[in-house]
Specification:
By secondary structure, the protein is α/β, with parallel strands linked by helices. It folds into 4 domains: 151 residues, Rossmann fold (3-Layer(aba) Sandwich), CATH 3.40.50; 165 residues, Glycogen Phosphorylase B (Rossmann fold, 3-Layer(aba) Sandwich), CATH 3.40.50; 160 residues, Rossmann fold (3-Layer(aba) Sandwich); 163 residues, Glycogen Phosphorylase B (Rossmann fold). The protein contains 26 helices and 27 strands. Helix 2 links the parallel strand 2 and strand 3. One of its GO terms (molecular function) is hexosyltransferase activity.
């Protein structure tokens, strides 16, 4: 009889009552939803007392059949072993579980110590030795957050940590309340969590600042309230205390207007699971600023003293309150959604299964909700990031009802995954080296498989309509197919692609600043076209401030800084223009940065006096620059103009469809930028000398403001979401 091989085995002590069990439950549910088989391997921790039951979250998984509990004396075979909670291995195991796996990941979900003692809870070297002895020498060590990573390295500077964190995940569909009005007549603040003194402020004064004793405020606490009252010596009249486990966290969060969490300053909080749950439920989270690396602008950061003023400000401004809720939901879905977990499993040899048994999503205990139908977004091009970035720009603005799934031929697939998208990589024909007929069959089969697997309501294609795409669209007519067709094609090119437009149900056209100079074939083909403003990944408000941008880019104060970004180098050789441009700018007094594309197939050649930066998206840091010399591809072109950055465009003449020359000429003609059409000649010297003058750069910035345009990404997302809703209503 052949032994069962599980896709994932999770080894931990399943009696932990808090975040460890919640994180495991979230991953198991995501795995079950994707048709993956999970085994749970229980190993008692020496720090949990005997007789404790399994966490209710784990027991529920087993009752629902979403995971199988490994038999203690039997062998467990799995493609991937995920080990959680390093404190299990602070002593030799009495019984070593028999787990055979192709790969092993040790998830470090607790710091080795705290602020006072970096090795209070465990010794990193000792844990590494035991885990390697039990499960083999090749183990991937993955912290759950930047804070844990820093603490591990503080304790053990030579620790071999994975490049990416094994962050926690959450399914917004299981938590989202959709509440658009306050819980009661006065603001309701609250928190939930296990009973542990370090989870609370250290002093009574800070405690009452964070959770004020006021007649016109209410405070609700689920778990640990006895610690707070012991510190105060009483229970404030406006506080309601519930024992841990008295309510399900999802149900409890529906009773709050604000989630407030502050803890002992010595505690190194691994992640902040309860904060993630609050944001997923639509409750604004007010926390300390040390959580910013995890939650960005999705949470509200202050000190205990700032809690009450912040609560009253948002209570009085419902529009701002709703904006905070929406921003948090967007980040949670994008960065911490289940798709990010499935993507990292796929990277470790555990792909999802097309014949998955779909488990119903649940909210609280018993309210079932249907699984959202996504928008499948297909991008072309293994040489650049333009197609992929446009789709990510739209995808990050889609509502929860139709999240994005990215399928791309770009080398930048890992970037989409890093940005929080469930990502599928389709190697291009050039990468596979296939003749065209075999490539057509491959592309059609892969697309049909992805449609059957993810059940999208809409497929949005930012690519020319290859034969395989057209065939897949014909084979899956119950899905709405949209061509995201960038304009500004070269004259007398692409007629064969335009002729295939009727294969799609609609055409979404990103706007083009240089539309007046567009002489390509898309100008005459307007049937079924839905046009929006130019699509950009970031809005103006997403840009880092000048100080932060200069710090990230390594720019020094007191001297202007120029960035040269002439493309990935995968289409055209950029070495000579880079060297000459860098020398000319350096001689003019600039600090010179060279942007290396995240998907460049060769590293940027060294240039004397210039420093290479490799950041995505680099547009986030444009405010730290005084000048950019750039190719005039669609994305960079519109970002530089929209954000008012003085620019010199050097068009790439060797693109197949994109008319970069006409685009750059038009920007120069309007006075919004400068242009160098022949970087090999004297024109480069003349134009860069002009751009080096401060008054010229100031004039370019002013002109950009005069001819400015908006970001069409949100409008594009709304249109696709509307098509998705129509598809769902029609029962397709």
């Amino acid at each position: 009889m052949t032994a069962t091989v599980h896709d994932v085995a999770i080894l931990s002590d399943f009696r932990y009552p808090g975040g460890n069990s919640a994180a495991i439950a979230a991953e198991v549910r995501a795995q079950a939803e994707a048709g993956l088989r999970t085994a749970l391997v229980h190993v008692p921790s020496p720090h949990n007392r005997d007789g404790l039951p399994f966490s209710p979250r784990i027991a529920e998984l087993l009752r629902e059949g979403l995971a199988e509990l490994a038999v203690p004396d039997a062998a467990t075979d799995a493609r991937l072993l995920v080990v959680r909670q390093p404190r299990i291995f602070t002593a030799d195991l009495a019984v070593v579980p028999r787990v055979h796996a192709e790969r092993t990941v040790m998830v470090i979900n607790q710091a080795p110590g705290d602020a006072a003692d970096p090795a209070r809870y465990y010794d990193v070297g000792e844990i590494r030795d035991r885990v390697s002895r039990y499960f083999g020498p090749v183990v991937e060590w993955a912290p759950i957050s930047p804070r844990i990573r820093a603490e591990v390295l503080r304790s053990a500077p030579d620790a071999p940590l994975a490049g990416a964190d094994w962050h926690e995940i959450i399914d917004v569909a299981r938590w989202w309340t959709g509440r658009d009005r306050p819980v009661a007549g006065v603001p309701v603040l609250g928190r939930h969590g296990r009973c542990d003194p370090v989870k609370w402020p250290r002093t009574a004064a800070e405690l009452l600042l964070a959770y004020p004793e006021r007649d016109d405020l209410r405070v609700r606490v689920l778990g640990g309230g006895e610690i707070a009252t012991r510190l105060l010596g009483r229970r404030p009249a406006n506080w309601e205390l519930l024992p841990f486990g008295a309510e399900q966290p999802a149900d409890f969060l529906r009773t709050l207007d604000f989630f407030v969490y502050f803890h002992d300053p010595d505690l190194v909080e691994g992640f902040g699971r309860t904060i993630l749950e609050a944001m997923a439920a639509g409750v604004p989270a007010i926390v300390g600023p040390h959580f910013r690396p995890l939650f960005g602008d999705a949470a509200l950061y202050t000190t205990p003293a700032g809690v009450e003023p912040l609560v009253r400000e948002l209570w009085a401004d419902r529009d701002r309150y709703r904006a905070v809720v929406a921003r948090a939901r967007d980040l949670v879905q994008r960065r911490y959604g289940p798709g990010t977990h499935l993507a990292r499993l796929a990277e470790r040899g555990v792909p999802t299964r097309p014949a998955a048994r779909r488990a119903p999503a649940r909210i609280g205990r018993d309210r079932a909700v249907s699984r959202p139908r996504p928008v499948l977004m297909l991008s072309d091009n293994g040489a650049g990031l333009g197609h992929l970035s446009r789709l990510m720009a739209i995808g990050r603005r889609l509502p929860a009802s139709c999240p994005a799934v990215i399928a791309t031929q770009s080398y930048g697939a890992s970037l989409a995954h890093r940005e929080g998208f469930l990502t599928e990589y389709l190697p291009s024909r050039a990468v596979l080296g296939l003749p065209r007929p075999r490539w057509t069959g491959f592309l059609r089969a892969r697309l049909e498989h992805l449609v059957d697997l993810h059940r999208p309501a809409v497929v949005a294609v930012d690519s020319v309509p290859h034969d395989g795409i057209v065939a897949a669209a014909a084979a899956r007519p119950d899905v709405t197919w949209v061509w995201v067709r960038r304009p500004m094609w070269r004259r007398d090119t692409g007629a064969e692609w335009i002729a295939r437009g009727p294969a799609f149900d609609g055409i979404l056209e990103p706007g083009e600043f240089a539309a007046a100079a567009d002489e390509g074939p898309t100008v005459a083909d307007r049937g079924g076209v839905h046009a929006v403003d130019p699509i950009m990944l970031l809005d103006r408000g997403d840009l880092a401030g000048p100080d932060e941008a200069r710090a990230v880019l390594g720019v020094q104060e007191g001297r202007p800084a120029a960035l040269l970004q002439l493309g990935a180098g995968n289409i055209d050789d950029i070495t000579s223009p880079l060297r000459r441009g860098a020398r000319l700018l350096r001689e003019a007094g600039f600090q010179v940065l060279l942007a290396e594309s995240m998907i460049a197939t060769e590293p940027t050649p060294p240039v004397p006096g210039a420093r290479v930066v490799k950041v995505y998206p680099i547009s986030r840091y444009l405010r730290g620059l005084d000048l950019v010399v750039s190719a005039s591809g669609y994305n960079s072109f519109h970002e530089l103009l929209a954000f008012g950055v003085p620019a010199v465009f050097v068009p790439n003449r060797r693109t197949a469809l994109d008319d970069q020359v006409a685009r750059a000429r038009f920007a120069a003609a309007t006075g919004a930028a400068l242009c160098v059409e022949d970087p090999q000649g004297a024109e480069l010297d003349r134009v860069l000398a002009e751009a080096a003058r401060p008054e010229v750069r100031a004039g370019l910035t002013r002109r950009c403001a005069q001819v400015g345009f908006g970001n069409g990404a949100a409008a594009a997302a709304r249109w696709l979401a509307g098509l998705a809703a129509e598809n769902v209503r029609s029962g397709a």
